[in-house]
Amino acid sequence: MTIREGGWEDEEQLVQHLSEFGLGRNEARLYLAAFGRPALRVAELAELADISRPKAYDVLRQLVDKGLVSEEPGPVARFKAADPMLVVQRLRQQSVLDQVDRVEDTSRLVADLFARYYDAPPGDDPFDYVELIRNSEAAWARRDALTSGAEKEVVQARKLPQPGVRPRAGEEVGVREGVRYRALYERGFLAHPQFRVRVAERERRGEELRFVAEVAVSMCVVDRRKCLLSLNQTGVVSGHGSWLVLEHPALASMLTDAFEVAWEVAEPAQG
Length: 271
Description:
- By secondary structure, the chain is an alpha+beta fold.
- It is built from eight helices and ten strands.
- The chain has helices spanning 11-20, 25-34, 42-49, 53-65, 84-119, 136-148, 193-205, 249-265, and strands at residues 40-41, 69-72, 78-81, 130-135, 153-158, 180-186, 207-212, 219-222, 226-230, 240-247.
């Protein structure tokens, strides 16, 4: 019997959603296997989740430690999934804490690495600071690297992903004192609860967020000097795409001026 036979229409999507909140793949599969069922033995849950019994036992212990699964008393260990509302609350709280830690740690690391990179003697090749990126995770990491080295300002513009796709988790940048951070989003982002719930918190951390009906191009520009441009028609949450990284002050300044025009007519979230 598979998880899908237990009533889940799209197992992989549910596993992916749980993974976005910090659960490992096996943790997500075992929680879904236990969900909505009476307390089951390790062997039964392992079969349902298609995981080996020794690995399932270790993963279930991890879920018990996280409070997402409870162990029923008795001569044979049996495990039952916690109430989904409790699980969502705990995962959301932990995700926020982990995200803040990751942003701060990553910002410090990449700021140092790229400070050393840009302090290196420049080459003669005009393409030394032109970079084409084909993977979304690499593009987000590159954005974090660029913004972590900001001295004055960071401006960002974001297009919506394709219909039916949730915006990427972890849109925040590492905020530092003395740097102004502004982000312009298409208004459709506010229709996603996972995004909207983070708006107030991001603003408290020091970001300025505004919304317009349509963003011409997704981009990130740092100090009117470096920019990351999305060459994709819609926002890309994961997988393949095309992004261009340029260190070209004239172009970066022009993009920032265009951002300023859109910023003036944009509205805050509560508007």
